[in-house]
Amino acid sequence: MSSTPSSPHPSMSCHALLTDIKWIRDLNLALGRAVTLEGLHDAILTETLDRFRARVAFLIEFDNRNGKTHPVLRSFGIETKGLERLRRIPWETALTRNEPVIGPSDPEFSNLHHLLSDIGGDHRWMAIPLLSSERKLGYLVLGTNRHAQLLESVDREVVRLLSVELGRFIQHFRVHRALDDTERRYRRIYENSKDVFYETTKEGRFVDVNQSGVDLFGFSNKSDVLALESIAFLYHDAADRVRFQEAIERDGYVKDYEVKFKTRTGQPLDVLITSNVRRDLEGRILGYEGVIKNITARKSLETKLAESEAKYRLMVENSIDGIAIYGEWRFLYVNRAFLSMFGYEDVEEVKGMDILQIIAPDSQVSFLERIHWDRSMKTGLKLFEGYGLKKDGIVFALEMSVFPTQFAGQDVHQITFRDITEKKEMEEQLIQSERLRAMGKLAFDIAHEINNPLGGIITYSYLVLESQTLDDTDRRNIEKVIKLANRCKIIVKSLLDFARDDNQDREQMDLNEILQETLMLVENHLLLRHVELKIDLEWNLPLVSVARGKMEQVFLNLIMNAAEAMEGSGVLEIRTKLSESGEWVQVIFKDNGPGVEEENLRKLFQPFFTTKKRGRGTGLGLSVSHGIVSQHDGRILVRTKPGEGCEFTIELPCS
Question: Which CATH code is given to the segment(s) 193-300?
Fold first, then answer.
């Protein structure tokens, strides 16, 4: 049987054409009454079954929303079993033409016949593509009794028109469905967003607002918000509303415009506004719409963080300890105390500098071991000691602590430095005091043990001298014994002075007065004739409780020691002043002699230790002086370098 429709009589053809046009019009009216896509499908099947007197009809619609083709089937006259068979057919590849498939002579007839052979019955089939802008949306498939001639007599132009009309209606419903889906998704986002979505008139009256806006501004329902005369009510400062309008009308939009709002009850809110201008067709501004983001919590956190950083910076910058942050062994930050401690003037002078440049060479190995990252992770904050190196090369004692931290997003170390030079000196003085106290007790015991036999030696020597039988040689020998015994007696007295804790005969005295009287005693001494004395006395010093004679002895010892160290030629500076703390009166003796070697410094106050030539001293002067100052609750400090002289500072507590 031919696949080409027969050619009817002209009058019959004209009548059929008018009938088809009327049917197409009625079909449009019927399809136009459908309100859902499913209702449209049912209308298509009902109208086409009746028009073509088909026994079986089904609709295949391709749904491409997910990038895949899924047959959407609606049918009449097909059992469920046959319908499931239809669902498994790959329709998007089985039929490829955009022409109706009709009859055995049609190129795709055999395909269609084979595909539909087992859904029941013996049918003729016609597949009408559903077209929209040449895009295939699916097929309307009709089946009639195999002996019927109806399908083959259908005008193909009518079929093409039907194909386009059905495709137009289906596409129309698809577009509306997509719009409805978009609207629903937007509404879900709109209502469920944590941010405020809003729309206002130019004057500020709310047109719409989501639930987040109702909640944020403290209202019970949306109608209360919409009833506001203007959004200006929610601005903390009404002038900010004016500035907002100027900005958005100038640029057409604002992005992350930060401003302060308030709730219905006046609670402040920090917000960011991102909005656009709404205009009519003629470009006139109707109002504004956009998003308001609540950043109150973030701003509060930023404020607290800024305050914390300011406090930390203030604490770090005003710390008396040197604080530094370094990474990759280079300094990234140092505070003012660090600069002062190490003798630098500017942060930029230190930034980028290798950390080992401020560590004394002898301490570098132990320092590196201490601050290694792995070890610091385990022992961070623990203190360790070493020696620092100032810019001018001076080495000084340090106490340090290191711990790992974060700085500018990288792993770094923070290290704290404390100058413990004075602490070390105090510790040394304490050790020295304890040593001298022990030696004093020993000296006291020895002196008492020696004193009595020594007195006997002197007494009996004088008795022997009175003998008339001595020759000149024996007499000279006895006189030498008496002379040496008296020298021993002087030494014993010095030992007793060194050991005795004598607080008697103290009175409130001006140290300047005692010092001046001591200087008068030695002004004509041979050792001082070629020594230049530079005296700088601070007047109106607080009085000090002292035993006058003992303090004169201390001053005399230090003056004569300095003169002997300079071998009678040099400069001796003597100063008095009040300490910075106001707790001590200081007397300072500074010479420009040879100084004291490092190995001798610790032994300086030990009894019988002397650096003088043999026979020039007993080694008790400084130890006795130390004992006297200690009895007065004071201390003696020594600063010296070989070749740069020596400085002794006596500190006595103010009364």
Answer: 3.30.450.20
